[in-house]
UniProtKB/TrEMBL annotation:
Name listed for the protein in its UniProt record: Probable tRNA sulfurtransferase
Places the protein is found: Cytoplasm
Residues that bind ATP: M183, L184, H208, F209, R265, G287, Q296
GO MF term set: ATP binding; CCA tRNA nucleotidyltransferase activity; tRNA binding; tRNA-uracil-4 sulfurtransferase activity
Organism: Anoxybacillus pushchinoensis
Source lineage: Bacteria, Bacillati, Bacillota, Bacilli, Bacillales
C-alpha cells in the first residue's frame, strides 16, 4: 500500500455553473502540459475534483509543478482504495501510521460522494476512528483542533484518503478569459502584472519596445528571460519585439521635453493596439501603479488612454512598490528584472516630466509628426518570438 494519487481541488471554478466543464477541460489541458515530462501519470478530471494517478512518479516533483498552475485551489497527496468498509479501515490505518502520530490528536472527516455506499457518514467516522484507536498507541481523538485531520472521500470509483493540503495558485485556468497583450518592459512591475493577468484566466502575448543602440542586446535578452519565466505559469507566450528607435527619436526631437514621455507612451499604446488587432486580442495589460512615477498619475493615464478605446487592464493599480517587489521575488522574476540593463523608457526619461498633462497640448505637439505612417512602418517591422516552457534558449534564434 502506498500514496498513489494527488487530489486537485478547484476552488473558484466551482462557482461557474453551466460553464464549469469548459473550465475543467481547460485546466486539464494546462495540467497535462505542466506534467508532460512525467509520462507515467494519468489525469482524470471530474466536475468537482481532479485526480492525478502517480504510477511510481515521485509525488513531490508533481506537486511542485502543479503549484504553478492557475485554477488549482489546493492539492493533497492521497491513498486510493476500493469502496469496501474493511479495505477503507485498513487504508486509513496505514495512512495515519505514515505520520509521526504518537502523542498526537486526530479526527476522521468522512464524506460520501457515493450516496449508495451502505454506511452513513456518521457511522463511517465512528467505524474508522475506532479502528485507528484500537490499532495505534499514543493517539487520541480531538474533533475540534486535531493534529491530523484524516479526510475520507467515498466515491463510486473508489475511496480517497487525504490529510494535509498544499496551497495552489488559485485563480482561473489560463485561456478561459480570452487573450490580452502585455506591455512588457525590463522592469519589476510589468512581469508581475502579466502574472496577475494570467491568474484571472487571460492568455497573454507580450509586446516589448526595443531601441538599439540606446538599449543593448542584453536588455532585450532580459525581457526574453522574463517572458520565458512567465511561460511556467501560462504556457506558450508570443513575444513581439518592436523596433522603436526611429519613432522614439522623432518624438523627442519634435515634442517639448516635459511632454515627450506622455507622447511616447501614447505611441507605444497605439502600436500595442495594432498588434492586438492582428493577434485577435481583447485587451491590453500594463504594469502601471497609480502615482508611482510621473507618467502614472491619473491625469497622465487619461491623456495616454485617449488614443484607444481598447480596455486597459492595470492589475497593479493599487499596489505599492514593496508589495510588487515581494510578489516578483515569489514568482521568480525579480532577480531577472534587476539586471543592470535599461529599457528605452528609462534611458529617455526627461528630467522634469509633466505630471498633469493637457490632452490638447500633446495633440498639438504630435500634429507636426507623421505618426500614422511611422506607427504603421514600425508595426510592419515587429519581430515575433514564440516562447514555450522548458524551451532551450538556443532554439529561439
Amino acid at each position: 500500500m502506498t500514496y498513489d494519487h494527488i487530489v486537485v481541488r478547484y476552488g473558484e471554478m466551482s462557482t461557474k455553473g453551466k460553464n464549469r466543464l469548459q473550465f475543467v477541460r481547460c485546466l486539464k489541458r494546462n495540467v497535462a502540459r505542466k506534467l508532460k515530462h512525467f509520462p507515467n501519470v494519468e489525469i482524470e478530471a471530474s466536475r468537482d475534483r481532479m485526480y492525478i494517478r502517480l504510477r511510481e512518479t515521485p509525488p513531490q516533483l508533481v506537486i511542485e509543478k502543479l503549484r504553478e498552475v492557475f485554477g488549482i485551489q489546493s492539492l493533497s497527496l492521497a491513498l486510493k482504495t476500493d469502496s469496501d468498509l474493511q479495505k477503507i479501515k485498513e487504508a486509513t490505518l496505514f495512512f495515519v501510521k505514515q505520520f509521526p502520530h504518537e502523542g498526537k490528536t486526530f479526527k476522521i472527516s468522512a464524506r460520501r460522494a457515493d450516496k449508495q455506499f451502505p454506511v452513513t457518514t456518521n457511522e463511517l467516522n465512528y467505524e474508522l476512528g475506532s479502528y485507528v484507536l484500537k490499532n495505534t498507541t499514543g493517539l487520541t481523538v480531538d474533533v475540534h483542533h486535531p493534529d491530523i485531520d484524516v479526510r475520507v472521500e467515498v466515491r463510486k470509483e473508489g475511496t480517497y484518503i487525504t490529510a494535509y493540503d498544499v496551497q495552489g495558485a488559485g485563480g482561473l485556468p489560463v485561456g478561459t478569459s480570452g487573450k490580452a497583450m502585455l506591455m512588457l518592459s525590463g522592469g519589476i512591475d510589468s512581469p508581475v502584472a502579466g502574472y496577475l493577468a494570467m491568474k484571472r484566466g487571460l492568455q497573454i502575448e507580450a509586446v516589448h519596445f526595443f531601441s538599439p543602440p540606446f538599449t543593448s542586446e542584453r536588455a532585450k535578452q532580459k525581457v526574453i528571460d522574463l517572458a520565458q519565466r512567465l511561460t511556467e505559469f501560462g504556457g506558450t507566450i508570443r513575444l513581439h519585439i518592436v523596433p522603436f528607435t526611429e519613432l522614439q527619436q522623432a518624438i523627442y526631437k519634435q515634442v517639448p521635453e516635459n511632454y515627450s514621455l506622455i507622447s511616447t507612451r501614447r505611441a507605444m499604446l497605439r502600436i500595442t493596439d495594432e498588434i492586438r488587432k492582428k493577434e485577435n486580442g481583447l485587451a491590453i495589460v500594463t504594469g502601471e501603479s497609480l502615482g508611482q512615477v510621473a507618467s502614472q498619475t491619473l491625469e497622465s493615464m487619461v491623456v495616454v488612454n485617449d488614443v484607444t478605446t481598447t480596455p486597459i487592464l492595470r492589475p497593479l493599480i493599487s499596489m505599492d512598490k514593496t508589495e510588487i517587489i515581494s510578489l516578483a521575488e515569489r514568482i521568480g522574476t525579480h532577480h531577472i528584472s534587476i539586471r543592470p540593463y535599461e529599457d528605452c523608457c528609462t534611458i529617455f526619461t526627461p528630467k522634469a516630466p509633466k505630471t498633469k498633462p493637457k490632452k490638447e497640448k500633446v495633440i498639438h505637439y504630435e500634429q507636426f509628426l507623421p505618426l500614422d505612417k511611422m506607427i504603421a512602418d514600425t508595426v510592419a517591422r515587429v519581430e515575433t518570438i514564440t516562447l514555450r516552457p522548458d524551451q532551450p534558449l538556443d532554439e529561439l534564434f
